[in-house]
Amino acid sequence: MRIIHNAIGHMKTINHHKKLVMQGCFRLGLYGQGLLHDLSKYTWPELRIGIRYFRDDQSPHNGEREKYGYSTAWLHHKGRNKHHAEYWIDYTADADPNGRHVAGMKMPVKYVAEMFVDRVSASKNYRKEKYKDTDPLEYYEKRKHYMVVHDSTRKQLEILLHMLARDGEEKTFQYIRRHILRNNHMEKLQQLFKK
User: Fold this and answer.
1) Label partner for 98 (CA 20 to 30 A): which of 36, 104, 165, 194?
2) pLDDT tens digits for 19-48?
3) What is the pTM assigned to this prediction?
């Protein structure tokens, strides 16, 4: 009985998340990304883990991670979805100050926009009626310290999350659509932060 409960719950969760991301991407004119978002969640390597470790209030990746110390479903997922910063991790010739040669590569702006929509939608999906526009930023702030991500991509995401928390969803989506995606304004915005 538990497996049926988990399967139904997991399917409802991923379908609702996909619907929210599609709506957000469509608002930004990212129709293809909205349609193709997270399709790997419906493949067996991810679906079976999602059902086995289903939780109503958080990702099943956390349950598998708690048991084994890693999540096979997440490793499968991040390698197939370009809206995750982890997809863009690669080797680099130059070591960082700690001597590591692995770094985040700069993400194309359209995937940063999808990553933003994904984070907003995940917060709405798990927080339900308790959702506030500050939730995606609060979630990010708790986990940003162990993210391997290009500085430029990190700054882009942080700007959008702060804007959402401060100005709300409508204004932030309008800004992304009119300025970032249309004019690649994010590049100009980042130049201001370097000065």
Assistant:
1) 194
2) 999 999 999 999 999 999 999 999 999 999
3) 0.90
